[in-house]
Structures are given as structure tokens and as C-alpha cells.
């Protein structure tokens, strides 16, 4: 099997998130939308519909999120990557400072979804836990992210793995829905029992 071993920085460009100095202020007619930690969840698609619309402070030219890019949550206890995928519109989006913005270099044979999978499980997560900096609030330094070991298999293998990951995630979503329905039914049963007891 043809496998390429490299560092993450060998295959992606890494940009910092846009440097907001405080909370992102919502503006109805703002020029850009901001992707924040509240808009991402491991195993789910990015919640584009609830990204905050605002005007960008300062004169820094923003690195806009594009299809095929990824974001990596560098702060906090959950350091995960999320593939941008298809946003559904052409509005300009930027990543908040809590993220690193990753862009796969031209001619690199790796799918964004597969790269997110590599960063979110197994050896990469062990590496991030070991290398995280800070005592109270953990964070991943840019140099740490750049040096993340990556193994890239064939395109065919990546496609097969992406399909398997998707199937497992769908199973989990179905299981979560069944649990929610079960909890609802338990509450309904309890309510019915209470009503019966008041009638007797």
C-alpha cells in the first residue's frame, strides 16, 4: 500500500482565525459571517445558519473560508478539526480566533473530510493531549499543529474510509434520536400515571 508520511504543515497552509479583540458583535447588515465554536460539533455538519453576522474590525485582509478548507479548534479541552464542506451560499465567512484555518496545498492527494478524520481520532488526538499548552485553559500552539504526524493512504482508501465514517455517524445520530424518543415516552408515561392517580 502506497502511504505518504509527513507533517501537517507539509500538506496544508495554516492561517490564524480573524483577530477579534472581544466578543463578536452581531450586526444585521454586517459584511461578513463568523464561524465560532458554538457552530461546530464533532460528528455533525457545521451550523452555518447560526453564524454571527458582523463587520470586521481593523484593516487586516481576511482569509475567507472556502470549500475544501478546514478549521481546527485550538483552544479548550476538545481540539477537533471540521471540514468546511459546502456552505450553501456565497456569503463571506471567517473563522474566529479560537480556530486555525487550514487550506490543503495544491496537488496534495488528500480529501478534506479524511484529513479531519485523521486529526480527530487515534494518534493525532493522543499527540494533541500530550502537547497541549496551558495549565487552566489548554490550547494547541501553531507549531504543535504544524508538526502533527500525518499518514496519507491512496485516494481509493480515503474514499472507503470516508464512507465508513459517514455510516458510523449516521448510526450514532439514529441512536441519539431513539434515546430522545425513549426519554420523551418515559416522561409521557410518568405524566399519565400522575393523571390516573389524581382521578382514582
TrEMBL record:
The keyword Ribonucleoprotein does not apply. GO terms for biological process: DNA restriction-modification system. One of its GO terms (molecular function) is endonuclease activity. Keywords: DNA-binding, Endonuclease, Hydrolase, Nuclease, Restriction system. Residues 54-158 form the Type I restriction modification DNA specificity domain. Pfam families: Methylase_S. It comes from the Bacteria. InterPro entries: Restrct_endonuc_typeI_TRD, Restrct_endonuc_typeI_TRD_sf, Type-I_RS_S_subunit. Belongs to the type-I restriction system S methylase family. This is Restriction endonuclease subunit S.
Amino acid at each position: 500500500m502506497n502511504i505518504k508520511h509527513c507533517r501537517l504543515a507539509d500538506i496544508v497552509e495554516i492561517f490564524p482565525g480573524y483577530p477579534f479583540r472581544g466578543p463578536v458583535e452581531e450586526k444585521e447588515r454586517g459584511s461578513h459571517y463568523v464561524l465560532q465554536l458554538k457552530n461546530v460539533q464533532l460528528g455533525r455538519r457545521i451550523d452555518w445558519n447560526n453564524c454571527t453576522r458582523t463587520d470586521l474590525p481593523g484593516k487586516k485582509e481576511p482569509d475567507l473560508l472556502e470549500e475544501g478548507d478546514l478549521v481546527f479548534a485550538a483552544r479548550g479541552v476538545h481540539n477537533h478539526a471540521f471540514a468546511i464542506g459546502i456552505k450553501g451560499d456565497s456569503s463571506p465567512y471567517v473563522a474566529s480566533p479560537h480556530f486555525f484555518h487550514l487550506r490543503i496545498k495544491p496537488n496534495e492527494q488528500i480529501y478534506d473530510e479524511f484529513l479531519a478524520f485523521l486529526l480527530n481520532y487515534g494518534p493525532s488526538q493522543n499527540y494533541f493531549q500530550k502537547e497541549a499548552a496551558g495549565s487552566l485553559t489548554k490550547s494547541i500552539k501553531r507549531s504543535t499543529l504544524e508538526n502533527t504526524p500525518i499518514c496519507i493512504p491512496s485516494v481509493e482508501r480515503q474514499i472507503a474510509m470516508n464512507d465508513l465514517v459517514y455510516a458510523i455517524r449516521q448510526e450514532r445520530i439514529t441512536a441519539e434520536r431513539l434515546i430522545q424518543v425513549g426519554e420523551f415516552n418515559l416522561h409521557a408515561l410518568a405524566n399519565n400515571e400522575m393523571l390516573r392517580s389524581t382521578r382514582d
